């Protein structure tokens, strides 16, 4: 069987000289700058230290910038295949169809993990610069980041399924942006577990930075895995059965 790591290596090769890295760094920076600025100017009202800061930076990052960034990453990962006859070449290569999708999803997962780490570092730096003690960091921070990354992988599977089907770069990104607002509405309607983008809001605690009960944490993890499996299966099935549009 064709080694998956070779397909992943090919995906990374395509990213080496791309400008995607600028987006991966710029959006977390903008999120933290906006959130820290709002926190600093309103410390008379926002008096819960690191938790208040998280609610400010997380609102911009988790609700808007991060989901949009995921959509951009996934569209970019499929951009080359949509150029010329590259999909035809890919589908006739001695590479299992499932490996093509899994390689892109693994690459998206690694990119989003990198973004989460950058965001966490900027959050800590921003907090210390606004006068917060690094020794009082929220104990929930690791859980927020991990569950946020898990939701990011779920959203990535959804966006890849779209981007592999739609030749346009902008359309899947636009759909992802619309799904972000729909996810916010689902969260407000207490139906967040039924929509992938709402899982990011719940997992990262961006609108309610507090500890989740263990049972709810497990539920979030299980639902993410189910969504990822469903979107991945649908994308792989379509690659195997539908004609490539190139």
From TrEMBL:
Protein name: ABC-2 type transport system permease protein
Keywords noted in UniProt: Membrane, Transmembrane, Transmembrane helix
Species in which this protein is naturally found: Paenibacillus algorifonticola
Membrane-spanning intervals of the chain: 20-40, 60-80, 101-124, 144-162, 169-189, 218-237
């Amino acid at each position: 069987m064709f080694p998956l790591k070779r397909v992943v290596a090919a995906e990374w090769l395509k990213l080496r000289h791309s400008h995607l890295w600028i987006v991966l760094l710029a959006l977390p920076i903008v999120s933290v700058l906006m959130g820290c600025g709002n926190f600093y100017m309103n410390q008379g009202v926002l008096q819960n230290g690191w938790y208040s800061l998280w609610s400010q930076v997380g609102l911009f990052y988790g609700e808007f910038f991060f989901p949009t960034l995921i959509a951009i990453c996934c569209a970019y990962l499929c951009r080359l295949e949509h150029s010329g006859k590259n999909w035809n070449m890919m589908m006739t290569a001695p590479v299992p169809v499932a490996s093509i999708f899994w390689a892109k999803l693994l690459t998206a997962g690694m990119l989003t993990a990198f973004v989460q780490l950058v965001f966490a570092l900027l959050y800590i730096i921003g907090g210390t610069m606004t006068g917060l003690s690094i020794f009082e960091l929220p104990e929930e921070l690791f859980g927020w980041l991990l569950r946020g990354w898990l939701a990011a992988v779920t959203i990535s599977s959804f966006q890849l399924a779209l981007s592999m089907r739609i030749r346009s770069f902008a359309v899947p990104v636009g759909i992802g942006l619309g799904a972000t607002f729909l996810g916010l509405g689902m969260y407000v309607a207490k139906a967040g577990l039924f929509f992938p983008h709402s899982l990011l809001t719940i997992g990262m605690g961006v609108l309610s930075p507090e500890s989740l009960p263990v049972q709810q944490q497990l539920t979030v993890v299980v639902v993410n895995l189910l969504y990822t499996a469903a979107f991945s299966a649908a994308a792989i099935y379509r690659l195997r059965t539908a004609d490539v549009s190139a």
